[in-house]
Fold these 2 entries.
Entry 1:
Amino acid sequence: MNTSIIDETTGRYLPIQYPEEMPFWKAAQQRRLVLQRCDDCRKVLYPIGPTCPHCGSNKFTWSEMSGRGVVHNFVVYHKPWVPYYRDRVPYALVQVQIEEGPRLTTNLHGVSVSDVRIGMEVEATWEELTPGVTLLQFKPRGGK
Amino acid sequence: MPMPDNVDATTPKFLRDKYAIVGVGETDYTRGSTQTTRAKSTRAMATHAVKAAMADAGLKASDIDGMLSYQSNDSVFSPFVAGDLGIRLNFYMDVFGGGSSTEALIGIAIGVIEAGMCKTVVIFRSMNGFSQVRIGGTGARAAAPVSGDMLHSRSYGWQSAGQMFAPSFMRHMYDYGTTAEQVAAVRVAHSHHASNNPKALYKKRVTVEDVVTSRMICKPLHLLDCCVETDNANAIIVTSAERARDLQHHPVLIRGVVGRCCKPRVDMHYQTGPISTVAGHYAKEILWPNAGVGPEDVDLTGSYDAFTFTTMLQLEDYGFCKKGEGGAYVSDGTIKLGGKRPNNTSGGHLCEGYTHGIAMVIENVRQLRHDADDSCPIGPDGKRRHTYDYREGGCRQVKDAEVSANMGWAMPGTGSALVMRRG
Ligand SMILES: [Zn+2]
């Protein structure tokens, strides 16, 4: 488990992968978005957690998401904090509301930061950080 | 404004007016306390601030028996400060936290005195916020291991306070049509106030133009939307209103407190609920009924201004204006000295110095004593003769200030608040 600071090879922070989150990370390596769906109230939980905050159930099933959503909010970062972003500013951070309900926070690929808008239709895309870590990202629907 | 007639000011349930702030003190606001020939430690600064607050109250070391502080793994603990000052403690606690701490700790101080655990409590915050642990995300803080809610954020280049909070501002613009120019008016007002505060680090008055043409840090946040980073310590002393009557200053009575009130899901604020609503939406349901007053009774406010928009969002959600009208409220002159309800008359964190909220409470204590430490002449009785001329370099005392409100902010989802009145 990586609990260290900035990764030397990539020049950025790598996510810690906790055991209870491994289905999410393993699916990500196969470029599939899975999240927990509550077996009792059928809602999708996010962030990944031990119980359903909607009904208190701790029974859930990792379920395939559509990967489609809408940009609910965004900001654009002009200041890099880690080496990886030094020549990549400005870059966007978006909150995407997926069709199944939760909002996921990622970057937005495949579009110039000046064109990012609330309400944009987007879909999941994948970024391989290291052989062990593939990161969920979003891009405009139908785009590259 | 005078207190409303129909309020029961003695309701024991809320301990209204039963406790008071009797002493306040601070170090200078500096940048680079550790870059001078000899480093100033958080211990030395805290000891200085607590000593200043004791002198302000007219209390001896033997009069103090409780101590509270807050920090983020970046400061000294209470027993060291007490030891340096010859204070023997019956109670102390050092808690983790930032901008939502001061008001919450005032509530805890009331609780432990009420419980008979001690009699008089000092609260301090000491930080080398410029020289050591910079809140902006550089230095030691940037190198900290990731955990908890940062798990899914840091890999996306999301880590500083500005980056974490800015989405609330962006979505407020989308939901309500708020503009960058309206929010910039917060910086303008606070810079005017700071120009009348000899202690302030940034005393220069700025314009809306200055703010919106300053470098973009994190769209929609410009450089001048962000606060200063400084090295300093601040302290306040809480005791019973009964003991307060024998002390040096006109007592400032505590009407009501809210401590670290939260939105339904704080860890992932952006994943649930309206992003453009902050904790004040919930905190106001505790604050105003407990204090027995409403926003309309408040003469001046202290709203956490790590950023311009945090002030705007809090004033709105605590009910100083209608939901969605925060942009107009902060830009129509209301929050400036001479306006209906000035905010952060010291210049706040945007201009005076960065203290994680405690300095805004100290400022309002001085305002309610009618003793703001500006450049007005001091009379033969040692008290300032305020001119109420708010031009640059002049007065910053709010005329006839009777009731104040402070609103502390940890993050969009967590806030604390305090109503005080002149005793
Ligand atoms: Zn459920």
Entry 2:
Amino acid sequence: MQKEQLHRLNCYVENKPGVLARIVGLISGRGYNIQTLNVGPTEDGTVSRMKIDILGTGKVVEQIILQLRNQVNVIEVTSRRK
Amino acid sequence: MNLKETRTGAQALVDSLAKAGVEVLFGYPGGQALDIFNCLPDAKFRFVLGRHEQGCVHMADGYARATGKPGVCLVTSGPGATNTVTGLATANIDSVPLIVITGQVPMALIGTDAFQEADTTGVTRAVSKHNFLVQSADEIPEIVAQAFYIATHGKPGPVVIDIPKNCQQALTAAQYPERVSLRAYHPESSATTAQINRLAKMINAAERPVIYAGGGVVTSGAAKDVASLAHKAQIPVATTLMGLGGFDEHDPLSLRMAGMHGTPAANWAMNEADLIVALGVRFSDRVTGKISQYAPEARIAHVDCDPASIGKNVPVELGIVADVKDVLTTVGSRVKAAKHEKWLAKIDGWKKSHPVTWQAIHPNVIMPQAVMEAVDKATEGRAVVVTDVGQHQMWAAQHFRYSIPRHFLTSGGMGTMGFGIPAAIGAAFGRPDHKTVAICGDGGAQMTFEELVVAVEHKLPVTFVVINNGCLGMVRQWQELFYGKNYSGSILTVKGRPKNEHLDQDLDYDYLPDFVKMAEAHGAEAYRVIDPAKLDSTIRKAVRSNKTTLVEVIVEPRANVYPMIPAGRPVSAMVFK
Ligand SMILES: Cc1ncc(C[n+]2csc(CCOP(=O)(O)OP(=O)(O)O)c2C)c(N)n1
Ligand SMILES: [Mg+2]
């Protein structure tokens, strides 16, 4: 078993209604708890940045990132361990 | 704004659907969709009125699975929209391209608990690939174009477009775009030369290779390419449930279906393989069994269009995110011809010692497996076979021999009872060149029976076969094997019903409904078979009729689906009876 660790995901998403709900739903629907969530504009007003902290094993977080990248409104996702 | 070029949002929607190439729209009306329905009589495409919104979505789904083109469905707000949820989830998990359009209350009323208001984008988010809430009539053509693009590119899936009534009524001059550009969604990906070379090297080095082919082979149209690779390097091929038809089961290299109810040869071959070439599969738990003991000796190469499915359930040595067909056409020339004589001889031994077969339990009672063989024979192996969910679904997977892609349509991932009847109707609209046969259980047939009238009205020569075992057989089987024969909630006859249901044992019927009378009441030609000697002739008569037919076959209620690897167990736990 891999150890659970805190990961910070940086998501750049299109600034459209429903995108936040979709991303949060994708994570919470799998039973993962979001520790911190911070959404704000970027210099490009049509793009928002979401900072999401979640606790999970590396494998789980990797799967979540791949699923996030599959979303139609997600431009980019990066992550680092906190 | 040039007034001549303006039209209502509803008209813009209908025009956009025609531009997107829609041939058939399945749907059911209601208040918040009436502006759209108002435009349908003049539309370039045909409209099919279902009888329940779940049925409409499954019809669109069957049409899409049978043709490869997206299926399209239109319903009203509130209950109309919530009735689509099961159909959406069914299509979503099996990667079927659908467009589901829902009416919505006017924007000014959203959030007020208006009559027939439901948060449709909220409700459908987790069961669709994507969804849109239209905010103005001007967006409609662009959103329709985007929805078709999203539904059919990358891993296909259902897309919901929720359109408030005021947007349907407002005027717009917006035109259908020439091309779609999505800022963030660029799913196309192809293999690198290095990946192709590594895949060829793995194949060339293998002594006991197996190709494990899934629904992605069918979706990407790669069946011929799988066959060429298999033949050139003499690699046996196992398919998943969704991959049936992706490789000819008459081919000596076919291992037929793998997994929980797969053939011993397919499961043992994967278990002993030194290489598994996994094409368009997702390593479902129904195939892998106990994951830590899956294919213990194999190197695994996995090709799939979905980056998230690679390495998700099983670690792989080589993962390639690309279209299966593209990969196979490029790797083909780099793969050396091989014979694998010892390996194939071993597999042949398994096929001979453990053939796909069955035995009668009582000489005067029809075995359900015999029904599958009778239908396969009567349709000369060329029917589009659509199933419902349960034991009959697994018997249909095991006892037909599939050879044509898109000729076995089933709810694999969701296992949705009620799928069979409407999906067969949708398939028949899409493939009028082929006979469509639905194989249903007595339980599942009752879930969407109302759709039968659609087949009759449109004179679709579909044959619906109801495998009547008087029980929810698959549940009954699990209770027999794993719950100490405690048949709670799974018996449909009066006889044998557990006490807690408080049924009067003196009722003058044992089992309802009478499927023959039901079918006749819906306008279909109907037959009942009880006698094994009459099975072949009745099935033949029904499938050769040019009318909508239903055959109720009374079968042995004690029949179970074997072989079986119990859930979560390794291949060694396979049981044969
Ligand atoms: C909508 C839905 N509800 C419940 C189930 C659980 N389930 C799986 S198979 C099955 C029994 C199906 O009975 P029937 O249609 O008679 O087919 P049989 O197994 O007898 O061939 C049930 C209840 C399901 N798959 N789908
Ligand atoms: Mg049954």
